[in-house]
Amino acid sequence: MAFDLKNLWQRLWPFAAEVQFVIEFTPSGPVVRQGRPPRSFLEDCQAIAVEHQVHSGRVTATGPRKDTTITVKGAVPAGIRQRLRNSWSFASRH
Fold first, then answer.
1. Which of 21, 25, 45 is nearest to 35 (CA)?
2. Is 56:67 a contact under the CB 8 Å cutoff?
3. pTM
4. What share of the chain in percent tops pLDDT 70?
5. How far is CA 57 from CA 1, 17, 35, 38, in A?
6. Residue range 33-49: average pLDDT?
7. DSSP states of 21-69 as a string?
8. What local confidence, expressed as pLDDT, does residue 65 receive?
């Protein structure tokens, strides 16, 4: 039986998490790479990046709109990751 990637993808697609938005930290500030994050969250990302000199890393929001979660990857210190999660918790409710 040959490995059929297309068939596998079609079977797993319903379980894939939907990406709502992706924000990438760059030396010039956060840049939206995909989707439309809430303005308040993007502004918080900008303030956090300036305050803590975050120049690389990525925030990805996944899941259905009502229950979206974020993951932070890259060169973002643990304390800053927590600030981003706290900011998201507030922004997603308002």
1. 21
2. no
3. 0.80
4. 86
5. 41, 20, 17, 19
6. 96
7. EEEEEETTEEEEEEE---HHHHHHHHHHHHHHT--SEEEEEES-GGG-E
8. 74
